Amino acid sequence: MEPQRLDRAAGVLLGAACGDALGVPYEFAPRLHGDQRPEMIGGGLGPYRPGEYSDDTQMAACIARALAEADADPGGEASGSEAGGAVLSGSVLDAAAENFLTWRFEGASDIGNQTRAVLGAAAPARGAPGVAEAMLAAAHERYDSGVPSAGNGSLMRTGPVGLCFLDDPQPTADAARLVSRLTHADPLAEEACVLWCEGVRHAVAEGGFEGVRAGVDLLPVNRRDHWAARLAEAEEAPPQAFNPNGFVVTALQAAWSAITTTSGEGAEHFVAALENAVRAGDDTDTVAAIAGALVGARWGASAVPARWRSSVHGWPGLAAGDLEDLGRSVARQPASALRG
Length: 340
Ligand SMILES: [Mg+2]
Known about the structure:
Elements: H1 3-23, H2 55-68, H3 90-106, H4 113-122, H5 131-144, H6 169-181, H7 187-206, H8 211-214, H9 224-235, H10 248-260, H11 266-278, H12 284-299, H13 306-309, E1 313-314, E2 318-319, H14 320-332, H15 335-338
Antiparallel strand pairs: 1-2
């Protein structure tokens, strides 16, 4: 793979982690104003150490590891859940679900309500083939019973899915939907993940931000006008206009606004966009983690300033170099290792 693509792939998890750690100190705190610069000083809900990222990047790492460790030749018979269909192999999807449960009981320093409820319901299937099916079923049951399931908790962790099929938008979108559904069965959450994963995929493959808007064409025909209008709103208003942002739609708008209304390019844009994402207020670490995956994909790991590189870290014992390695490993996976 060409060096620029690899640098951008390395930037996806590292960028998310930087946004996450930058937003952690200000989550649900009074909103920062334009003359206040956020810093990775820790605290927040954990409380976290300076530079430590939170559940957003922890869960993204769960997904990335499942993808990076997929076996290109598992030696014959298909194993694991059948729920992946032709999108992701059952064993890859099971590994993601299993990693979520390991994280839930061994690593989760904080956790959203929706994710807590679904992982709790799926916990009895831990360690068994079919754990992903149990998780998908738990998420669906919750949604079908009328519990709102369109929080930002699947969008916040979706970045690595954009690295699965770097030359192919349709399977990227299919994988985005499936991985979102593990915990969030509302179609709005799936649609947001489709847009963001196409944004990440395109940014890594081509080096540009056009993928988010192009991703609208990957949605059902009757949903395209809705999302095109939401993206246009985000391009016309500052990130704090989309506050509160616990809802997946306003979280995406806040992140997209932070990216598209911030000027500059390269390292300058990377830093300023994440600072503006934190200034959205409310769920600051999540909005900045969402934005971070995309600006990291666009500008690459080489755009991350040294002071952030040396500070950012988190569960399960990952530092900046590990996050870069994970991103590159997912990007290098052949489609045959990931597909069902
Ligand atoms: Mg968080």
